[in-house]
Amino acid sequence: MDFLILSLIKLAVVMGVFMTTLAYLQWIERKVIAHIQLRVGPNRVGPHGLLQPLADVIKLITKEGLVPSHVNLVFYCLAPIIAVFFALIAISVIPFGGEFTVPFTDIHTSMQLTDLNIGLLLILGLSGMGVYGVALAGWASNNKYALIGGLRSSAQMISYELPMALALVAPLLLVNTLSLREIVNAQDGFYFGVLPKWSIFALPFPQVVSFILFLIAAFAETNRVPFDLPEAENELVAGFHTEYASMQFASFFMAEYANMVTVCSVATLLFLGGWHPVIPDMLGGNYVASLLHLGAGAICLYHGLLQPARKWDKYTLPVFGVIFILIGLVFLIPIVQTILMPVFWFCAKVLFLLFIFIWIRGTLPRFRYDQLMRFAWLFMFPVALVNLLVTALMVALF
Amino acid sequence: MPQLPFPSAVPISYYLILSAILFVLGVAGFIYRRNIITVFMSIELMLNAVNLSFVAFSYKFAKPDGHIFSFFVMVVAAAEAAVGLAIILTVFKNKQTLQIDDVDSMKL
Amino acid sequence: MDAILFFVFAALAVGCAVSLVLQSHPIASALSLIGVMGSLGVLYLLLGGEFIAMAQLIVYAGAIMVLFIFVIMLLNAGAEPPGPKAKYLKFIGAPLLIVLMGLIGYFVQTQMGATEVVKFGSKSDFGSPASVGMSLFTQYLLPFEVTSVLILIAILGAIVLARKEID
After folding, report:
1. Fewest CB atoms within 10 A around its CB: which of A224, A316, A354, B44?
2. Do A135 and C63 touch (CB under 8 A)?
3. How many CB pairs below 8 Å do chains B and C form together?
4. Tell me, what's the ipTM?
5. Burial, A1: exposed, middle or buried (Cβ in 10 Å; 0-12, 13-18, 19+)?
């Protein structure tokens, strides 16, 4: 019974944080892409557009859910459900931090919903099942553009699953386990006290090639630029989600962002050392979180009080500044440090990878479909194979 | 948890009976349906039922050999699905039909 | 708890199998088959076969069925028209099926009725990836290599059969 109640509490916390992250990830993406393109982005709804996700959710929920008469109704309604279902389940095996004991009680638990000893295979399987949502959506819409978009997108996702799986196997040769928690535990420590023992720095063979291959395959798996031809606005009307409105359209986008977060989390866990710190404790790594937040608070206070750039900044930025300084001070408390520092490092690394995703979206043009497939089969697959062979050779020799 | 009217764990024979039921349903689909792709899917259902039998017996003897047989069955099913679907595509290109009753040009 | 999980997923598997046989549209049959494979995956987990459950999810439900769905979509297979089936099929076929299933169930139960129960996690880790991998690469190495050649032949055959003739 205790296990059940504890799991339900963890589930509630994780889902709350995850859903908020998905909503605000869209805000971050719109602001970052806007600044890359020398414009401002949403800044009307709330200070700096922070309430824009809320406005979007309200719009999408209250919009008329138009179901065209020519669609195949059962599969039309089933496709977004499948897409969202498999995208959201993957969060259940991702660990956010180490084991800890809840203070003032004796509950000893870990920051993960479940720790399967085949956790990585489950994530691979779920990303394979996500293909069905897209293929069914394209077919059930009874619309030739949607069908072409759906088939192209599913073919792309299947083609890139292969280099992704091969790129994932290479660091597994170094850690010898499929459980995500054990993979991160094997990357603990520092070389010479300075260089973290992550997979991309690990002897006998640093997994840099695997990391880059995995990231490129992840772009293709989640249908992001430069591989987003199936849902490009100026190519195929809107690809496989042409005929979808309001909440079903929102489901597809939620599924895409959830896939993005999952894939970045897996990259962090396997290649970037999960929740282990970048700077070791002895060199002051424990204070990085506090310093970052205090610095952000200072910048907000400066721009709010002394040099407001926009009209409402006089009132909103000091509030943010005070909040950041409070969080920075909270991170100085020792109990909070032991429990929340791993989560901070994990979130920092995942946010860095997400920023790279968004950055590349604002920078690169998209591939043509045949270039995309050629890239997968003629370049990434052989490179992944050779990388796996070289890793296996180095592991066997040393 | 309240006391259930049936035992809290099932004997292995239940898994074998389930495997038999799925196999018989696969045979029924194979004989009854006329669409060639549905016939092919009934074959896959039969292969899945056999996999369940293998895994159940592997539990009985606590060895991984049944799992390995099941793995090979999956691999062979994948190869067979690829070639079978390619044959279906060729039949469709030549006859423009997916009903197995209409592919009868070699009948006496 | 094991029994509840078994009965729920067994009922789901049988329901999806019946739906596979009875549905008229091939895509509905394909989705029912994916349902069968998913429920069987959970049953493999109950039987301690973690690796084979994940292989079922990745290979069978995630790759082979995608191939089926692609072919159905490309061939634009529609719902099967209700043909002139003889009426007696329903009255003889279904009861005969039930009799066959009952016979098999009776024989299995009498021959194997007194065996052990399946308790999740009661036996050692024989189904873990390490154990399966060790056995696969030492004792069953030859079948493994032969199946990889088989897959290569299948790839070649599929490409040759399905390719467009260049005139």
Report:
1. A316
2. no
3. 231
4. 0.89
5. exposed
pLDDT in tens, C23-48: 889 999 999 999 999 999 999 999 98
* Chain C closest-CA separation from residue A139 CA (Å): 7
- Tell me which residues of chain A have a pLDDT lower than 70: 1, 231-239
Domains plus CATH for chain B?
35-102 (1.10.287.3510)
**C14 vs chain A: nearest CA distance in angstroms?**
21
Asked if C58's CB is within 8 angstroms of A158's CB, the reply is: no
Does C119 have pLDDT greater than 70? yes
Q: Span C2-127: which CATH code?
A: 1.20.120.1200
Closest C-chain CA to A158: C63
Q: Which position has the higher pLDDT, A195 or C142?
A: C142
Q: Which of C48, A177, A80, A321 is nearest to B64 (CA)?
A: C48
Spell out the domain ranges in chain C: 2-127, 128-167
In Å, the largest CA–CA distance within chain A is 67
Inter-chain CB proximity C28 and A147 less than 8 Å: no
In whole angstroms, give the CA distance from residue C83 to residue A313.
73
CB nearest A125 (choices: C31, C62, C69): C62
Of B14, B25, B90, the CB nearest to C162: B90
Q: How far apart are CA A97 and CA C39, in angstroms?
A: 32
